[in-house]
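Hello Y.,

Per our agreement to keep a running log of every chain we model this quarter, I'm adding this entry. I've kept the format consistent with earlier entries: sequence first, then predicted structure.
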Amino acid sequence: MYTLDHSDKTALIFGVANHRSLAAGIAQKLHASGARLAFAYQNERLKGMVAKAVEDLGPSLLLECDVSMDEDLERAFREVGREFGHLDFLVHSVAYAMKEDLEGAYRDTSRDGFRTALDISAYSLLPMARLAAPLMAGRNGSIVALSYLGAERAVENYNVMGTAKAALEQAVKQLALDLGKDGVRVNAISAGPVNTLAARGVSGFTNILKVYEERAPLHRNITKEEVGDAALFLLSGMASGITGTVLHVDAGYHIVGY
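Predicted structure for the entry above:
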């Protein structure tokens, strides 16, 4: 029987912004299961915020890493290898689009804005997976990325981020095929709206929360802890036969046709 004792496991998490982040919810669950954690933050300006968000999660490795820079990613994974010797879990919870591209007409998205959103929110998973794979060799590694229903449906004001999430979900499937021969699984969680720093950047977000509460089969919004539980399952050996899957954690909203 598989037990959720991860005291011999290590995890690298991208995307903790503060204690409300979905990535923070995942980190809390991994910490509770015994895993050693490393966190990547974008730049020195954000280091203090990330450090505060994870201060209760025991000794953690903090790594400065701009995911749009190959050299930063290479350095971060090198440091993980040097510090941990291996890697078992990788969490991709990184997304960014220019503010002006998350409001107004989607057709007005700039070329630079489109490129930026796709690069940071979707493409970044590819070099992460490439760099993680050697560290996961022989350890049945697992990768989880965070998505949203906007990858499947047109969501007002989500705009180019929906395009980026669609690309991310396809990348998850392609990487699952790519890395399966190495025993590495790749999955995604399509999370319902949670009041995070990133979500508040989407115009009309408060209304989205109300719509989910009204229409989702469970008639409520989800919590970051529920996303954390789902990620812990997908990362762990309990999901050893699951790869290339997008798991919806959204109180059932994705099944509703109105």
